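So, is this right?
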Amino acid sequence: MKLQRCVLPLLVFAVAPTAQAGNTGKIAGIVKDAQTGEALVGASIQIEGTTQGAAANIDGYYVILNIPPGKYTLIASVVGYQKQTITNVTVSIDQTLQPATVRWQSGTAARQPACATA
């Protein structure tokens, strides 16, 4: 009887994280300078209207996790460059959306649609 009281709470904690698996997707990509091709370390990628986002690492790679399915707009910014908006980013359950590489030209702004690769 004592064993059952200990095992049941452990099973609940073991199963609870898997209950949410499969309900969200993620967005990943790379940010680079259009002229030099160099990674833009620290570039900020935000999902418009949310608090979700990520910063690019030393290779320009970013990933935003646990995004509910739907259509989003990404706002990308980095010091010394104009903000970029990537529209029509569609997130699906259990898939990684990799929009086209974000490339900046110093002092210019661009709007580009997202391309999905599953």
In short: The chain has a mean pLDDT of 75. Residues 1 and 7 are 10 Å apart (CA to CA). The beta strands are 25-33, 44-47, 53-55, 61-67, 70-77, 84-91, 96-97, 102-104, 111-113. The domain at 23-113 is CATH 2.60.40.1120 (Immunoglobulin-like).
